[in-house]
Specification:
Blueprint (H helix, E strand, L loop, with lengths): L9 E3 H8 L4 E2 L4 E5 L5 H13 L3 H6 L3 E6 L1 E3 L8 E3 L8 E2 L1 E6 L2 E7 L5 H19 L2 H16 L8 H13 L8 H23 L13 H14 L10 H4 L4
Parallel strand pairs: 3-4, 4-9
Antiparallel strand pairs: 1-6, 2-3, 5-6, 5-7, 8-9
Helix pairs in contact: 4-7, 5-8, 6-7, 7-8
Length: 251
């Protein structure tokens, strides 16, 4: 593997992927990674091996060649330029935590690591995958989740998993009298609700996390139904459990 210290200070993500794609380190037949900064074995375990080990096998079938690049920092592009891998910290308004790039049959996910807490990094890691999954899952999987969300809308379920899906749900309620009518606004809300819920599901397989309570939080009975459906659609790998009572709390 190339010495990360020898990398160009600022390199567009497409040029970076082209330059180092042959030096990716395989984890499985579906996933590989590259370090653009020095990390010790314990950090590689925390940032790469543990989160990948918790991924449902079916995700590797839907996204067969996924390459993770751990970068010091990522810088948002100007206008039509490419986002950048950079060794130097960008201005705050230009910093990014993640970005993606499709290169032939491979999909590259760039994740900024320097100065990121592991818990925040894990959330970003799984949120990236959940967003990708929302576009690449099978039609039958999408339809089952959509039916569940329409049942929630019919039952006037309050709240959401994250602020992003909460805002879309509020827009849907303000702009559409019949919430069950199939519209772009409804589809956008359901896709975002899937992304937010799938992030929680995947993160929960890897780590013990707590769901914050509050007036905007989806009630537990609805959230549990969503998570149970995702577990059915994307079963966990052997040895991983979704709820504490299934396997006891993991360290």
């Amino acid at each position: 593997m190339s010495d990360p210290a020898s990398l160009t200070t600022r390199l567009p993500v497409d040029a970076f992927a082209e330059q180092f794609r042959r030096e990716m380190i395989p984890l499985t037949t579906s996933y590989s990674y590259f370090l653009a900064l020095p990390l010790d074995d314990n950090q590689v375990q925390q940032y790469v091996k543990e989160p990948v080990a918790a991924l449902p096998p079916s995700i590797g079938e839907l996204i067969p060649r996924l390459c993770f690049v751990l970068a010091p920092y990522l810088e948002r592009a100007n206008n039509k330029g490419r986002d950048l891998v950079t060794l130097e910290k960008p201005a705050e308004n230009r910093q990014m935590t993640a970005c993606s790039l499709e290169l032939g049959a491979e999909l590259f996910y760039f994740l900024a690591v320097k100065e990121e807490e592991v818990a925040n990094y894990h959330y970003t890691f799984y949120n990236c995958l959940a967003a990708l999954l929302s576009h690449r899952m099978k039609d039958a999987q999408r339809q089952r989740f959509s039916r569940l969300l329409r049942d929630e809308l019919a039952g006037e379920a309050h709240g959401e998993v994250e602020e992003s899906s909460w805002r879309l749900k509020q827009q849907l309620r303000r702009r559409q009298t019949n919430l069950l009518r199939d519209t772009k606004l409804q589809r956008d809300y359901i896709r975002q609700a899937f992304e937010d819920t799938a992030t929680l599901y995947l993160h929960g397989l890897c780590c013990d996390i707590d769901v914050e309570t509050g007036p905007r939080q989806l009630p537990a009975r609805y959230l549990r139904k969503r998570l149970e459906l995702l577990r059915e659609l994307f079963p966990p790998p052997d040895g991983f459990a979704l709820f504490p009572e299934e396997l006891g709390r993991r360290e």
